Amino acid sequence: MDVLDLARWQFGITTVYHFLMVPLTIGLSLLVAGMQTAWVRTGDRKYLGMTKFWGKLLLINFAMGVVTGIVQEFQFGMAWSAYSRFVGDVFGAPLAMEGLVAFFVESTFLGLWIFGWDRLPRKVHLACAWAFSLATIASAYFILAANSWMQHPVGVVLEDGRPRLTSIWAVLTNNTVLAAFPHTIFGAFAVAATFLVGIACRHLWRRSDHEGVWRASVKLGTWVGVAAFAGLAITGDFQGKLMFRQQPMKMAAAEALCHTESPASFSVFAIGDVSRADCENVKSVTVPALLSFLAHNDFSSEVKGIQDLVPLYQAKYGTNYPVDDRLGELSGKPIDYVPNLPVTYWGFRLMIGFGGIAVLAGLAALWSTRGGRVPSSRWFPVAALASIATPFLANSFGWIFTEMGRQPFVVVPNPSGVDGVWMFTARAVSNSTPGELLTSLITLTLVYGLLACVEVFLIRRYVRAGVAGVLPDREEPKTDEDVLSFAY
Q: Distance between CA atoms of 408 and 249, rounded to whole angstroms?
């Protein structure tokens, strides 16, 4: 494998792993803050148990997210230094905001929340929980603003062959981030909601103590999950329409739409080899005219296919890579403007499919536990715990589709933006040797695998212990003064 392939595999493995922690932290932090609010307002010990149990799992996940996230920023200099030099003037601003503003606030108030149970008055302590949660949201926004600029560059001029930032406001209000942000947040709530439902159903089936905590968690998780998936459908539709305008090749690849159609049908699934850009020997089960509506809100509109888009890209961005030793095997070779079709086509469908399974699992759990019922089947807890994986998989496949679908660009050209503000992925890598990148790839993969074992061990330990493992079995404090003796 050459340097480019190794660098992409390394970034892909570490990013997908890191993003397993991110949505759970975002969604669970807000839900835990809501649980603590219910306890402060009502004094019901059930909500205190929910806050402490789910809060403990939140802390474990957050810690692992921080550890794995640090590596991401180092990779820009280690494996993608050419990219960093090209976009540094723009990319550094939102990343600095995320680090200096959001993450510092996030960490500060999380520390106050962790160690403030026996030191702060209830309302002050609750305010720390909300400050941490909202800072987590802000952190996500700044990261998405940086990623969205790569998908749709705005707010820059081209000077000396590099983009120079002229408007940070344009970057932060990029229509791409305004579409991606709510979609990502709804995805985070879907992950957290399914996490609640799966674990709580297991405890209900085992007839664990604190039944009220588990029933309330199932109800909260189910309704939050239903609302989240409804939000995902709405925001996903808006985001899809935007992508058809900004990155038509990505969306054509998502449908394996090889030839222009008017009206265009939506492919439910395909039988055959979708890796061929001519779509020969591929049979699809389709919904007539639906793709035209999803693209343009018009059932009769035209949607361009891959075969017609390739010449447009070639005319604007070239037919061959430059002759340059830094491009390795791609030096002087024809540019393939078609993303990996099996990854984009099936990734898009797996994202939708796993999301739908998560919704059905949540509704099934709510129905199975209605009116105080607890299913006796031994498969109930197995299915409940297995369902936790579905929104994680949906999120992962969604991001894989988003990032793989923009290839061969690492900075995608803006159809209405400044000419020249784009970059091929092949030109973004560092001047490293395959041996160096292979060493770091193997090392990081092994370290991340070890961290995964640590997180699973800790999560499993506290899940099995239940509420009793985090909540002392004694009378809860009645006044703010009593909180001083009620340690976490």
A: 11
Average pLDDT over residues 76-88: 87
- Residue pair 429/79 in contact by the 8 Å Cβ criterion: yes
Q: Cα dihedral angle (140, 146, 152, 156), rounded to 10 degrees? A: 140
* Alpha-carbon Rg for the chain in angstroms: 24
Q: How far from the centroid of its chain's Cα atoms is residue 355's Cα?
A: 13
Token pair for residue 300? Answer: 């009769």
Is-contact 33 198, C-beta < 8 A? no
**pLDDT averaged over the chain?**
86
Separation between Cα atoms, residue 265 and residue 356, nearest integer Å: 21
Helix (H, G, I), strand (E, B) or coil at 412: coil
DSSP structural state of residue 477 = P
CB 452 within 8 A of CB 37: no
Closest CA to 129 of 30, 240, 269, 200: 30
CA–CA separation, 383 vs 141, rounded Å? 34
Cβ atoms within 10 Å, residue 457: 11
Burial class (CB in 10 A: 0-12, 13-18, 19+), 159: exposed
pTM (2 decimals)? 0.90
- Give me the mean pLDDT over the 42-62 stretch: 91
- Cα(400)–Cα(118) distance, integer angstroms: 43
- The β-bridge partners of 156 are 165
Q: Which two tokens stand for residue 413?
A: 């050209």
- Residue 438 to residue 137: CA distance in whole angstroms: 35
**How far apart, in whole angstroms, are the C-alpha atoms of residue 151 and residue 165?**
16
User: pLDDT digit string (tens) for 287-325?
Assistant: 888 888 888 888 888 889 889 999 999 999 889 888 887
Whose structure tokens read 């031994």?
Answer: 378
DSSP letter string, 68-90: HHHHHHHHHHHT-HHHHHHHHHH
